[in-house]
Write a structure and sequence with these properties.
Helices cover 81% and strands 0% of the residues. With 83 residues, it is mainly α. It has one domain. Keywords: Membrane, Transmembrane, Transmembrane helix.
């Protein structure tokens, strides 16, 4: 779960929604099960997708920060290849 950076926030939002739904039910308002499931799925799915997107961007940033290391590694491989 350490790699899914936004999952904890998504779970907190889901728990907040469930708590709100319980209060609404107590006050006489009914929220359909399909709506509740949709909110939960969209919230958790968004958290996972944002986490994956953030991982991709951080990997791209690593490549941009250290291009000389990557280029040096590739140069060593080219030197070792037979001609």
């Amino acid at each position: 779960m350490g790699e899914l950076r936004y999952l904890q926030t998504s779970v907190a939002l889901v728990l907040g929604f469930i708590g709100s739904k319980m209060i609404a039910e107590y006050l006489g308002e009914h929220i359909p099960t399909t709506v509740s499931l949709a909110v939960v799925m969209v919230t958790l799915g968004t958290g996972v997708l944002l986490s994956f997107k953030d991982q991709e961007q951080s990997k791209e940033l690593e490549w941009d920060i250290f291009p000389e290391i990557i280029n040096d590694d590739n140069q060593d491989e080219k030197d070792e290849m037979p001609k």
